[in-house]
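Entry: Tautomerase
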Amino acid sequence: MPFAQIYMIEGRTEEQKKAVIEKVTQALVDAVGAPPANVRVWIHDVPKENWGIAGVSAKALGR
């Protein structure tokens, strides 16, 4: 059972997350031949203040 974990800065819409889940699932089906029903995708929404870029939080950078 393929299991993909996706970490993203918070703020994506439900529609965007749905698209990520669909496309990652299809990529795993294509790459390893897993049945779609066996693929799991977990999206981690990370608060902007908890995501660092070059020593600064994404929130401080206005991301």
